[in-house]
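Here is one chain, start to finish.
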Amino acid sequence: MIRRGLALFASALLAGAPLAAQQPAHEHHGMPGMAGHATPIPMPANMVMMPGLVGLQPGVTPFVPGGGVDPGTLQPARPAALTALGDGDTLELTAGLVRRTIRGHDFVMYAFNGRVPGPLIRVPQGATITVRFHNRIDLPSSVHWHGVRLDNGSDGAVGVTQQPVPAGGSYTYTVHFPDAGIYWYHPHVREDVEQPMGLFGNVVVDAPDSDYYSPANGEEMLMLGDLLMQADTLIPYGADAPDFALMGRVGNVLLVNGEPGYALRVHRGEVVRFYLTNAASSRTFNVSFGGAPIKVLASDESRFEREALVPSVVLAPAERYVVAVRFDRPGRYPVLNAVQAINHFRGEFEPEVDTLGTVTVDSAPAVPDHGAAFDRLRANAAVSREVERYRKAFDRPPDKRLTLTVHTSGLPLATVQFMTIDTAYYAPVEWVDGMPDMNWLSTSKQVRWVIRDDATGRENEAIDWHVRQGSVVKLRLFNDPHSFHPMQHPIHLHGQRMLVIARDGVPMRNLVWKDTALIPVGSTVDLLIDASNPGAWMLHCHIAEHLGAGMMTVMHVDPTHGPGR
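Its structure:
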């Protein structure tokens, strides 16, 4: 039990204590592409909607893709297929409408080239490709090449590097891949809608060294996500602004590669290299493989200094990990997401385990047997040598300090009163949505998530941040635990790479180049940024609804001849 006061408050609500006047539900009559909110928001087991919120609706026009298009008239989405490209090649990439069947029900959703995930782009390190993007969905869009240190004009960051590509429009990107690793691509306008509806795909950049990763019998790409549904109904999005602005939209149908169930068959003793990407809007995953040993090899933009055995892998939205898993005995291994959930209404913590899929291992032996290589934990001297060049900056004072917090106005009185008590405690990471009724009713019209510059007090896009190209920037991020609703934030920096060098003053001992770092509630995290790529680069929370509620700023990396400061 967290706080007796919180439980008593919840009991009063269940007894019908009046906390807020109910407002009438909005009505919507036959609007193209819209669906009304007649279906109530799904509530977790043992939780009821707060009486003060019953009958209220988000203050946004509801939206679902397709504008009333019959899904039966559309082609079904196909799974991702490998698209191998070389230096100088061109890819035609089209965002369009498709039919997707989720748990036996057909929906109009989005896809790149008719595939969910989009084409698996595989390129050699150092390649440059041209991507001709064509927008054939019913919203403006773009393509952001997440984690890639490319030319600024091709970053896809709407409002910073380009205007949105209108429905029916096109845009050409030149994408250079300087670093080996696992990357992904997705829209950078209304990510809260377009990304979960199917616009996401992986990029694998292969190093010239065939021994870059420890050997494996096979490779699997797992893009993790979720959808929020009530029975056979997709919960609509906000047309004019994101809803679920407090915690982000956390779905109740978990997906792997766009499907609610993953299956793999392997032989006894096989080592499988999994490329894991969290493509969810808000959910943080904790992935394991039914007790099979996991060796972590790499994350976002490089290998780790040292391979390590881990019991599970935590992925915040937008993070990627490369792991090797050895299945040494026949049987069925569940792919699990095991977390510690919070029921805010009841004031309780409780374990929650979801099965994302199953790996079935037969009795035939692996050929070849990579067991001995799997057991060796390699040190990647090349990574350590590169990191060594930056170590002299680890202990110096930060160049910039940012605080992560939130401002709200106009939320229902019941939500405000509940959250006043709720902030008596906090969890470093909220793995599930423990207050879906309050979260659903919050929109970006009422919630503004904030990145604040401690030195100037400026917030979000008002921060005037310039650094010189080639500089090494130490950034300290603090996640305020006393804000209206403390929430973890996966902070993503475009176009650069960074090291997470310390958490709460404790130095990190096994470093890896990142582009996204999870900042838990109450934590202080130090990042060291290699500001090598000139241009205007977004820094933002990768919870899509938080970004839609303003949580972004821009770091200007000025060319060496410019006025960096």
